[in-house]
Amino acid sequence: MTGISDQIDVYFIRSKDRAIGGLIAIVFEGDPIIAVRRIREYLTKKPWILKYTLKIIPVEIVTNSLEELKQFVRRYAAERIASNDSWKIRISKHASKAPSRKIIDMLAKEVQTGKVSLETPDWIINIEIIRDAYLAAIIRPTDIIRKKEFIEQIEKTKLLEYVKRSPHNF
């Protein structure tokens, strides 16, 4: 039990008669960013749960409206991104032909603070497009759990713990 929510619903994302490769939505009441941070803590104790998972990404809004998406980005970018922070917009499409460049340009105009950094941003404006739905969140890079990075981090931590316990510490 992760302590995230009492009521959790799990959905397999489908396109017509088939599931879209590997996409699963977990719906619950509560803050998705806090939830993904709790999941990260939980996974440090039980990392084998990631066996069939590549990435966990929080979503704060689901909408079919580009106008609603723009309003979300405008509001939360202003609240979260400080003037000395950096940010990037990341778009991932699933069963969609939406024009990424056009959407990035449109959303970038809504961010009135900070500077763009494609390599090492402080914030990610993450947009998942599934068919004609936009799923978005404004998150720290560490709020995305990537299996490969997570496993590397755990391995480093365990090696450091071993070195600290070693009777041959220097």
Give the radius of gyration.
18 Å
- What's the shape? globular
Structural class call reads: alpha/beta
Strand order of the largest sheet: 4-8-7-5-6
Number of helices: 4
The profile of the biggest β sheet is: 5 strands, mixed
Distance between the termini: 40 Å
Question: Mean pLDDT, rounded to whole units?
Answer: 84
- Helix fraction? 25-40%
Spans of at least 5 consecutive residues with low confidence: none
**Number of domains in the coordinates?**
2
**Percentage of residues in DSSP E strands:** 25-35%
Work out the number of β strands: 9
Order of helices and strands: EEHEEHEHEEEEH
Structure report:
- The chain has 170 residues and is of the alpha/beta class.
- It has helices spanning 32-45, 66-80, 100-108, 147-165; strands spanning 8-15, 18-28, 55-56, 61-63, 86-94, 115-116, 123-130, 133-139, 145-146.
- A 5-stranded mixed β-sheet has the order 4-8-7-5-6, covered by helices on one side. Strands 1-2 form a two-stranded antiparallel ribbon. A two-stranded antiparallel ribbon has the order 3-9.
- A hairpin with a 2-residue loop joins strand 1 (8-15) and strand 2.
- The longest helix is centred in the last third of the chain and has 19 residues, at 147-165.
- The termini are far apart.
